[in-house]
């Protein structure tokens, strides 16, 4: 079922991507890059640290969780609402670019970030003391 969910999400993103006109995206790139940077490096880590404040994760694990996770479907879907309501603005284009930046940047660097934060490495167990021999 997990694989089917991912395929459904990919299909939805593909269909929503058909609503984008590439020539209109160029003017929105600077604004989208700024929003992406704020979301990736400030907002998402802050939200992760706040929501996991009472959990027993190390700061490295929390930081790694803020780097990975589901992104894309909901922001693009929500960006359609102002467009459908006729609100002036370029919400959809900016949301599309932010999701694109997030997917490309974060998905290509998950392994690197995991290695840098030393997350997911198996801890070597302490060697067991030899059993005491009765005298």
What does this structure look like?
The chain is mainly α and 135 residues long. The chain has a domain at 24-117. Helix content is 67%, strand content 0%.
What sort of overall outline do the alpha carbons produce when their principal axes are compared?
Answer: elongated
Q: Stretches where pLDDT falls below 50 for ≥5 residues?
A: none
Oligomer: single chain
Spell out the helices and strands N to C. HHHHHHH
In percent terms, what proportion of residues is strand?
Answer: under 5%
Terminal residue distance: 59 Å
Radius of gyration: 21 Å
Topology:
Blueprint: H1 2-17, H2 22-25, H3 29-51, H4 59-67, H5 73-85, H6 91-108, H7 110-117
Keywords:
single chain; 135 residues
Question: What can be said about this structure in brief?
Answer:
The chain is mainly alpha-helical and 135 residues long.
């Amino acid at each position: 079922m997990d694989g089917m969910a991912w395929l459904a999400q990919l299909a939805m993103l593909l269909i929503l991507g058909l609503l984008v006109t590439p020539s209109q995206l160029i003017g929105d790139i600077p604004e989208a890059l700024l929003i992406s940077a704020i979301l990736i490096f400030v907002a998402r880590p802050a939200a992760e640290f706040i929501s996991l404040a009472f959990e027993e994760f190390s700061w490295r694990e929390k930081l790694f969780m803020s780097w990975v996770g589901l992104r894309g479907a909901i922001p693009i879907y929500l960006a359609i609402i102002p467009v459908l309501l006729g609100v002036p603005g370029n919400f959809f284009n900016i949301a599309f670019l932010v999701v694109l930046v997030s997917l490309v940047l974060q998905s290509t660097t998950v392994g690197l970030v995991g290695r840098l934060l030393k997350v997911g490495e198996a801890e070597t167990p302490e060697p067991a003391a030899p059993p005491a021999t009765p005298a």
